[in-house]
Design goal:
- With 246 residues, the protein is of the alpha+beta class.
- The protein folds into two domains: 122 residues, FAD/NAD(P)-binding domain (3-Layer(bba) Sandwich); 94 residues, 2-Layer Sandwich (D-Amino Acid Oxidase, Chain A, domain 2), CATH 3.30.9.10.
- It is built from seven helices and twelve strands.
- The longest helix is centred in the first third of the chain and has 14 residues.
- Bound molecules: flavin-adenine dinucleotide.
- Flavin-adenine dinucleotide binds next to β5 and β10.
Amino acid sequence: PTGGWVESGAVVEQIAKLCKDSGVQFYSGHMDQLYSEGSRVSGVLTTDGNVIPGNIVVVAAGAWTPTLLPWLTDLLSPTGQPVLHFLPENPDLFRADRFPPWNSDIASSGWYGFPALSDGRVKVAHHGRGVSVHPDSRGKVDVNHEIRAREFLEQSIPVLSQAPIVYRRICMYCDAFDGNFLIGHDPNREGLVVASGGSGHGFKFAPVLGEVIADAVEHHPNKWGARFSWREAGAPKTEEARYTGR
Ligand SMILES: Cc1cc2nc3c(=O)[nH]c(=O)nc-3n(C[C@H](O)[C@H](O)[C@H](O)COP(=O)(O)OP(=O)(O)OC[C@H]3O[C@@H](n4cnc5c(N)ncnc54)[C@H](O)[C@@H]3O)c2cc1C
């Protein structure tokens, strides 16, 4: 097997620590809008009324990006994806030493999952079309999705199919119209860089994205720069692993 997984929260914490240790300063706050002087973006106005100044502002707000920068709605859209956690009677059957991360021919089914968490919960999720929702009002997982999940498990992992579902969540993707990141200077707003469009596969690229974004900010050439750079919206596309059926 060549699959693997990491705990995203722990990774983000570790990256933040590495940044702090190397001198990066963190200013916390909730961005309300961009702050501009003349026609140039020169900072961020927070919801508590403070301005965080910056020569360049990089907005990397995931699924919230098109709400914060509404002129991007042709390029980026928030999509909700259902996640379920099952609690099997015997979680030891699903520990990582015997139950790897898996997907079920994901492009033609959408289903994938992970070994049991330390408390025994087993995540089963779906990499599909999802539903178009605002990240602050996602709604609930559709009961029909739970029925489809149990039908799938009955066929493929029967011992999990009757286990209670102990956690349900709509999780957010920021889909770019063509499935590629959007990383570049906004040609119409000097001082603004957008780094978003994870399209459901953003996390695994965390180790390389910093360099791609830094090169975009500084206008340095980058191997991936052209692919992710600013572009007009065109025909919708997704990466090959995304299930696009109903
Ligand atoms: C169910 C699910 C499973 C996934 N599985 C995988 C996987 O297996 N592999 C993979 O590579 N990717 C996966 N992804 C996708 C991955 O999680 C995203 O692509 C990635 O997190 C995007 O990173 P980001 O930094 O662009 O956005 P986010 O991680 O969403 O970060 C955006 C941040 O901006 C903050 N923010 C929002 N609004 C404001 C504001 N106004 N002011 C200040 N901060 C703000 C948010 O709080 C958040 O912390 C999955 C996503 C989901 C939902």
